[in-house]
Amino acid sequence: MNSFWKSLLTQKKNRALLGLLCAVTFLSGCEAIPTMTKNDDPVIEEPKMATNWKATGAQLAWGDMEAFHIQTGELEREEGRQELQQEMLDALEQEFATELPIQGEKKGTITVAATHYPEGEILLEARKLLAEKGWDLQVEWVSDYIAANDTLWQGELDACFYQHSLFLLAYNAKFGADLQNVGPVYFEPLGIYPGQKQSLDRLAESDTILLPAEPMELARALRFLEEQGLLVIKAGVGNGATLEDIIENPKELQFVLLGNQARAGIEKEAAFALLGTAQAVEVGYSVVKDALLLEDQYSQGATHYGIILVSRADNHMEESVLELQNVLHSSTMKKFLTDRYKGALRSMDFSAGTLLPKGEQGIEEGKEDTDVHDGE
């Protein structure tokens, strides 16, 4: 859920396009899952649009998400943006509206609630593989994440595909539901990128490291540094860690929150920078070529913020749901994710990112409605 991507668009009428921004705002570093607040009504925070997204005609160049190649000239930030995005949404919906031949005996229909991009595009590929096994995959496009979970809980869907496990746990706690994490599908890795220094072997005492300013990404970055043995974070702060929660810093590293620096600015101001995928791309890094160290699928960041398939307690072991999960974890789908997203979005094995153990749920006792954001 996470990081890559967020929305351009205004409230209810256009929130269906949030999923698209999970692709277009790959460059924006924003989140695409709603925030749960202490008010009764959940809200979806308005995202910020990247200033430098590019497109190829009426389609994003999915084969190279970091370049967003242009064939017809670079679009201005505002000019034509909504028209282009609507064309993309219409094209994807048309693909699903087109009947796909089912091979052999039809076993049934699997109905999944999902955002358009990247989940819808991933499901479009999965649909072809499921058709070969006798299943017809249909998608209900998500315009409200809470409402879609409600619909699943009421038995009107087979699964949902747009959230991470922390959001699922918060939803279950807030609304008394029992939706199930069937398994992880993908995540967007946070990484360490070069600044003044080009190798982590050169990390020295008192080096300055830039960290994301956004609270969720900051907490994720601090946890990543803790996993590398560079910090110790105060126990019990869950996924809300801040700089004030650092209790051990053996190298006396200096931390500065990232502002609006471009890559050249980072290279002047700090030895290294910890960045989410979207933010790294926006400031000018390549995830594949430049990252010195990336979260793997078993890191806390991936297991907490990787996007999962969700169903109910009464259907998560049904053949239809298991078949969908098997397809999403197949070698064919993993190759698709690798080829399509070039390392900026990475597949997860079934064993990574299943339901978090007690104490790692990001929900403090007595605070079941703690804010939870989307993650890769």
Report on this model:
The chain has helices spanning 11-14, 18-24, 81-97, 116-131, 145-153, 165-175, 215-227, 263-269, 277-283, 287-290, 300-305, 319-328, 331-341; strands at 108-114, 135-141, 159-164, 179-187, 191-194, 208-211, 232-233, 246-248, 254-257, 272-275, 293-294, 307-312, 346-347. Strands 2-1-3-12-4-13 form a 6-stranded mixed beta sheet, with helices on both faces. Strands 9-6-10-5-11 form a 5-stranded mixed beta sheet. Helix 4 (116-131) links the parallel strand 1 (108-114) and strand 2 (135-141). Helix 2 packs across helix 4, helix 3 packs parallel to helix 4 (116-131) and helix 4 (116-131) crosses helix 12. It contains 13 helices and 13 strands. Residues 1-78 and 353-376 have low confidence and may be disordered. The protein is α/β, with parallel strands linked by helices. It starts with 10 loop residues before the first helix and ends in a 29-residue tail after the last strand. The protein is elongated, with a radius of gyration of 20 Å. Helix content is 32%, strand content 16%. It folds into 2 domains: 1-189 and 295-376, D-Maltodextrin-Binding Protein, domain 2, CATH 3.40.190.10; 191-294, 3-Layer(aba) Sandwich (D-Maltodextrin-Binding Protein, domain 2).
Number of structural domains = 2
**Estimated structural class:** alpha/beta
> Mean pLDDT, as a whole number?
76
CATH class of the largest domain: Alpha Beta
- How much of the sequence lies in strands comes to 15-25%
Tally the helices: what do you get?
13
Largest sheet: 6 strands, mixed
CATH homologous superfamily assignment of the largest domain: Periplasmic binding protein-like II
**CATH third-level topology of the largest domain:** D-Maltodextrin-Binding Protein, domain 2
Helix percentage: 25-40%
Radius of gyration: 20 Å
Using the alpha-carbon principal axes, give the shape: elongated
Topology pattern, helix = H, strand = E: HHHEHEHEHEEEHEEEHEHHEHEHHE
**Which strands sit side by side, in order, in the main sheet?**
2-1-3-12-4-13
Uncertain residue ranges: 1-78, 353-376
Assembly type of the chains comes to single chain
The strand count comes to 13
Can you tell me the CATH architecture of the largest domain?
3-Layer(aba) Sandwich
Tell me the span between the first and last alpha carbons. Answer: 5 Å
